[in-house]
């Protein structure tokens, strides 16, 4: 059923969907679709905003609807994801403060978490091993390739050898950007979880 819902009913569904953040995307979409269909049928005769609100009140608060769906799926949302925030710190800044060990500890925490989905865990692990610490190692390796210098009577210009290799340049850019991307993805998922538990 694809009936257009009133704005307050659409917002109600969005709030429920935020509360379902711990569920996998497929299951979340399924719950929201069922709820949308139920609302469309229930609101068929609703002529005023008061009628719509009455139907929504009978359905229950979005927080309660989301919690019921989570409980049915056997998912218990963690209200304070302390370990997850430590994981974000360790895979980013911690990978520089504690080279190799910091990143490995952070990734271990990422895989232990019940908040992040498997594909995000894989992405965080493979985007760039060793995180920002790995970028530093990469930089030192490239720096060790030496320079090519061209001298003229009045000046000399030196360029790092790897800069003239497009593949190495592309890999270096990827290496620098990917830790930022993986960290932002982890933080975004944590923010969605916080919204869900703060409904």
Structural account:
The chain is built from 10 helices and 2 strands. With 199 residues, the chain is mainly alpha-helical. Strands 1-2 form a two-stranded antiparallel sheet. Helix 8 packs antiparallel against helix 10. The longest helix is centred in the C-terminal third of the chain and has 32 residues. The protein is elongated and about 90 Å long. The relative contact order is 0.12.
Summary, kept brief:
The protein is mainly alpha-helical.
Draw up the topology in text.
Elements: H1 7-19, H2 25-42, H3 49-59, H4 62-72, H5 82-91, H6 94-97, H7 101-112, H8 118-126, H9 131-143, E1 147-151, E2 156-160, H10 166-197
Antiparallel strand pairs: 1-2
Helix pairs in contact: 1-2, 1-4, 5-7, 5-10, 8-10, 9-10
Looking at how many chains there are and whether they match, the oligomeric state comes to single chain
The total count of helices amounts to 10
**Low-confidence spans:** none
First and last CA, distance: 28 Å
Rg, Å, rounded: 25 Å
Strand content: 5-15%
Major sheet characteristics: 2 strands, antiparallel
Number of strands: 2
Helix content: 55-70%
Written as H for each helix and E for each strand, in order along the chain, the element string is HHHHHHHHHEEH
Question: What does the average pLDDT come to?
Answer: 82
Helix/strand-derived category reads mainly alpha
Q: Strand sequence of the main sheet, in spatial order?
A: 1-2
Question: What is the 3D form?
Answer: elongated
């Amino acid at each position: 059923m694809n009936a257009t819902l009133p704005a307050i009913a659409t917002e109600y569904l969005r709030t429920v969907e935020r509360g379902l953040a711990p569920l996998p995307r497929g299951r979340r979409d399924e719950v929201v679709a069922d709820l949308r269909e139920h609302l469309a049928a229930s609101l068929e005769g609703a002529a005023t905003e008061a009628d719509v609100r009455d139907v929504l009140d009978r359905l229950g608060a979005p927080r309660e609807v989301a919690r019921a769906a989570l409980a049915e799926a056997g998912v218990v949302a963690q209200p304070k994801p302390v370990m997850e925030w430590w994981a974000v710190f360790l895979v980013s800044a911690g990978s520089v403060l504690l080279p190799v060990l910091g990143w490995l500890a952070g990734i271990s925490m990422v895989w232990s978490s019940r908040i992040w989905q498997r594909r995000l865990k894989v992405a965080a692990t493979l985007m760039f091993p060793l995180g920002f610490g790995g970028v530093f190692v990469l930089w030192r390796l490239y720096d060790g390739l030496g320079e090519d210098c061209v001298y003229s009577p009045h000046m000399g210009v030196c360029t790092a050898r790897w800069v003239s290799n497009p593949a190495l340049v592309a890999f270096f850019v990827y290496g620098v950007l990917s830790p930022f991307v993986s960290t932002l993805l982890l933080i975004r998922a944590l923010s969605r979880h916080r919204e869900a538990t703060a409904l």
